[in-house]
Write a structure and sequence with these properties.
Elements (H helix, E strand, L loop, with lengths): L33 H4 L7 H16 L9 H12 L4 H5 L4 H4 L6 E4 L6 E3 L6 H5 L4 H10 L17
Antiparallel strand pairs: 1-2
Length: 159
C-alpha cells in the first residue's frame, strides 16, 4: 500500500539576495550551516545543509545536531561528520571564538574559565540508522562541511 507524505518548508524569514549584506544570524541554530556559524561568506548552499538536517529529522524523528548552544552544536557536528579541516577553520572569522589552537571545541570563556567539549564519536550512518547506500550518499553530499564540496547536481549524459 502506498501512502503519500507531503512536507512543505515555508519559513523564508531570513531569505535574501546574494547581492544583499549577508547576516550572520540566518537559519535556526540546529539547521545552521557551518560557514554561517564560523563567519565565512555563504550562498544558497546553506539551504542544502538545512535540507539535509530536515531530511535526517524526518527520517529519524530526532534533530540530527541536537544542541543547547553553538558550541554544543559544533561538538555534535564534529562527532558525527568528523574533525573540521584546519585550513577550513582558518577561513572563519569566528573560529577562534569556538575552537582552541589545537582545534578542540571551546565551551565558554567567561570569567577566565575555559571548558573543552570532546565530541562523542558517531557517524551519519549510525545517527540515521540505515544502510541504504543511495540515501547515505545523498545525505553525505548535502551535509558536506565545506560548502564548496556540498551537493551539486551533475547532468548525466546518455551514452
Amino acid at each position: 500500500m502506498y501512502y503519500r507524505c507531503e512536507v512543505k518548508v515555508i519559513d523564508f524569514g531570513s531569505s535574501c539576495f546574494l547581492t544583499d549584506h549577508l547576516s550572520t544570524y540566518v537559519q535556526s541554530r540546529s539547521y545552521r550551516a557551518p560557514e554561517v556559524i564560523l563567519g565565512m561568506p555563504y550562498d544558497q548552499r546553506i539551504d542544502l545543509w538545512s535540507l539535509g538536517c530536515i531530511l535526517a529529522e524526518l527520517y529519524t524523528g530526532k534533530v540530527l545536531f541536537q544542541n543547547d548552544s553553538v558550541q554544543t552544536l559544533l561538538a555534535r557536528l564534529v562527532g558525527i561528520m568528523g574533525q573540521l579541516e584546519r585550513k577550513y577553520l582558518k577561513r572563519g572569522k569566528y573560529s577562534t571564538k569556538y575552537f582552541t589552537k589545537n582545534y578542540t571545541v571551546l565551551y565558554d570563556k567567561r570569567n577566565g574559565v575555559v571548558e573543552y567539549l570532546y565530541p562523542k564519536k558517531s557517524s551519519l550512518r549510525r545517527r540515521l540508522k540505515t544502510d541504504d547506500a543511495l540515501f547515505l550518499d545523498f545525505m553525505t553530499r548535502l551535509l558536506k562541511v565545506n560548502a564548496k564540496e556540498r551537493y551539486v547536481h551533475r547532468k548525466h549524459e546518455d551514452k
